[in-house]
Amino acid sequence: AQSVTQPDARVTVSEGASLQLRCKYSYFGTPYLFWYVQYPRQGLQLLLKYYPGDPVVQGVNGFEAEFSKSNSSFHLRKASVHWSDWAVYFCAVSIRAQGLTFGLGTRVSVFP
Amino acid sequence: GPKVLQIPSHQIIDMGQMVTLNCDPVSNHLYFYWYKQILGQQMEFLVNFYNGKVMEKSKLFKDQFSVERPDGSYFTLKIQPTALEDSAVYFCASSLLTGGYAEQFFGPGTRLTVL
C-alpha cells in the first residue's frame, strides 16, 4: 500500500529565511502528489500538485516543490518565508481515483 | 476560493448514541469524501460518494457508519452507535472531477468526542 512520510513534525524559521519541508512517498509507480496547507481553524487548502511531467511544480504564495522519482520524494520549498506562512503543511499522494493518503504534517512556526 | 462548510465544529456525545456530521460541499461539485484524523495520527480516507452511492470505502468505514446526501442538501456522515474509538476530527471534502489528479476542497473539520 502507498504511504507518505513527513519526517519533520515541527519546523521553526525566521521571517525572510528559506524553508524546505520534506516528503517521502512509498509507491512502485509514479503517483499524483499534492501539498496542502492548513491555517488555524480552516480547512486544508491546496498549495500545488504534481502530474507526471516537469519535476518542479510552482504553487501559490511563492511555494514550489520538486519531484524526484529516484529518491521517492516531493519536497516543498519557499525562498523567503512570511509570518502568514505559520501553518501546518501536509503532503499527500493519490494513486487510485478516490482517496488521498496523507502524511502526518509539518507544523511551521515563523518568528521575526 | 470555493469553501466547504462543516456543522458543527465540535460535538460531544455519550458512547452508544447516534451522531450525524454535516457537510456543505462546494455547490457544483459531484464527488464527496470523508476523512478521519485521530489526535497525533495521519488523516485517513474513510469513504467517497457520487451520484447517491458509495464509490469506495476504507477498512476504517465500519458497519456503524453511513453516508448520504438527500436531495442535494448536506452530505452527512452518520455513526450509529458511536464507540470511544470514534473520537477524532472528521474532515469533509468535495471535488468537481474524479481521478488521481482531481483537487479536493476540504472543510475545517468537526471534532467529535465520544465519552
Explain this structure.
- The complex is a heterodimer of chains A (112) and B (115).
- Chain A has 112 residues and is mainly beta.
- Chain A has one domain (3-111): Sandwich (Immunoglobulin-like).
- In chain A, 0% of the residues lie in helices and 53% in strands.
- Chain A is built from no helices and 12 strands.
- Chain A has strands spanning 3-5, 10-14, 19-21, 24-26, 32-38, 44-50, 56-58, 63-68, 73-78, 87-94, 101-102, 106-111.
- In chain A, strands 2, 5, 6, 10, 11 and 12 form a 6-stranded mixed β-sheet that branches. Chain A has a 4-stranded antiparallel β-sheet with strand order 3-9-8-7, with no helix packed on it.
- In chain A, strand 7 (56-58) and strand 8 (63-68) form a beta hairpin.
- Chain A is globular and about 40 Å long.
- The mean pLDDT of chain A is 91.
- Chain B is mainly beta.
- Chain B has one domain: Immunoglobulins (Immunoglobulin-like), CATH 2.60.40.10.
- Chain B is built from no helices and 11 strands.
- Chain B has strands at 5-7, 10-13, 19-24, 31-37, 43-50, 53-57, 65-68, 75-79, 88-95, 105-106, 110-114.
- In chain B, strand 7 and strand 8 (75-79) form a beta hairpin.
- The mean pLDDT of chain B is 93.
- At the A-B interface, strand 6 and strand 11 of A face strand 5 and strand 10 of B.
Could you say which structural class the secondary elements and strand pairing of chain A correspond to? mainly beta
Query: What is the CA-based Rg of chain A, rounded?
Result: 13 Å
Percent strand of chain A equals over 45%
Helix content of chain A: under 10%
CATH top level label of chain A: Mainly Beta
Question: What would the principal axes of the Cα set say about the shape of chain B?
Answer: globular
Outline of the structure:
The complex is a heterodimer of chains A (112) and B (115). By secondary structure, chain A is mainly beta.
